[in-house]
């Protein structure tokens, strides 16, 4: 049975934190890396490869559908779909491709999920605190050498099913209470590893949230996926993607389209209102 996935943990955590702090007030707008890398930001993105030259690059303003729960409604007339990589098969991707759509593969890259078929492959020592969803725990992203093959296998699955891109969720663990002393440098190194794994497989890759590191990671990612930047007054942090001719796929859960669409249209975002469960319903800008 499909269920809301970890991609909305950020929304729930932030709403809970703000509720505790503000009650009913209106919202206002050096640890050692466990992998073989040194954890330092790279000076420049890697040189283009043949795969990079042929990789799908979505453009700013393209309409999209994001559905992670329930049976995917393939009748939504938009060029881009983002769906769960484990719960959907190659036949669905092929059907969407036949209709002229590009398809993004949602996978969790920052937390362990007990209900996934590869759950037993994750070492217990890498599992931290819960991330707000039943059966999910933050990963120790410092252990890149141990996580690299696990994430590579997930991206191999996306590629084998015919997906055009991946949306790796929870790429901002260092800003949360994970049970591990994660630093910004740890997150940069891990996120760059994730992007490289996708690119090595000819897949485009999106930066999920992690707004504070947009300047450092812009060259590594092909698009952004953001939740609630309008509600939290953060949308301008994502404009470097638009300047670089890369889209910002954006949703709001609490605001009505009239409250955020005029502003994000000016920014060039691909925005819509969605239910928190990310079912088929959408109200686009």
From TrEMBL:
PROSITE patterns: PROKAR_LIPOPROTEIN. Residues 64-281 form the Glycoside-hydrolase family GH114 TIM-barrel domain. Residues 1-26 form the signal peptide. Pfam families: Glyco_hydro_114. Residues 33-53 are annotated as: Disordered. InterPro entries: Aldolase_TIM, GH, GH114_TIM-barrel. Keywords: Signal. PANTHER family: ALPHA-1,4 POLYGALACTOSAMINIDASE, PUTATIVE (AFU_ORTHOLOGUE AFUA_3G07890)-RELATED, ALPHA-GALACTOSIDASE. This is Endo alpha-1,4 polygalactosaminidase.
């Amino acid at each position: 049975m499909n269920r809301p996935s970890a991609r909305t943990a950020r929304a729930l955590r932030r709403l809970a934190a703000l509720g505790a702090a503000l009650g009913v007030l209106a919202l206002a707008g050096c640890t050692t890396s466990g992998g073989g890398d040194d954890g330092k930001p790279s000076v420049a993105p890697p040189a283009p490869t043949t795969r990079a030259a042929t990789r799908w690059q979505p453009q700013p303003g393209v309409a999209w559908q994001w559905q992670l729960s329930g049976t995917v409604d393939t009748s939504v007339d938009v060029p881009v779909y983002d769906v769960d990589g484990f719960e959907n098969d190659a036949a669905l991707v092929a059907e969407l491709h036949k209709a002229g759509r590009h398809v993004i593969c949602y996978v969790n890259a920052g937390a362990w999920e007990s209900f996934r078929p590869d759950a037993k492959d994750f070492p217990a020592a890498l599992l931290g605190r819960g991330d707000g969803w039943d059966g999910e725990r933050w990963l120790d992203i410092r252990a890149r050498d141990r996580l690299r093959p696990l994430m590579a296998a997930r991206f191999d699955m996306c590629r084998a099913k015919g997906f055009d891109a991946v949306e790796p969720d929870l790429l901002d663990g260092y800003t949360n209470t994970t049970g591990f002393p994660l630093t910004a440098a740890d997150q940069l190194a891990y996120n760059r590893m994730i992007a490289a794994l996708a690119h090595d497989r000819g897949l485009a890759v999106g930066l999920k949230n992690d707004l504070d590191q947009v300047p450092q990671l812009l060259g590594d990612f092909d698009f952004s996926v953001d939740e609630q930047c309008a509600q939290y007054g953060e949308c301008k942090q994502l404009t470097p993607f638009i300047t670089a001719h890369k889209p910002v796929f954006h949703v709001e859960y609490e605001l009505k389209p009239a409250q955020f669409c005029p502003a994000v249209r000016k920014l060039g975002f691909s925005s819509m209102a969605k239910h928190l469960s990310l079912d088929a319903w959408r109200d686009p800008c």
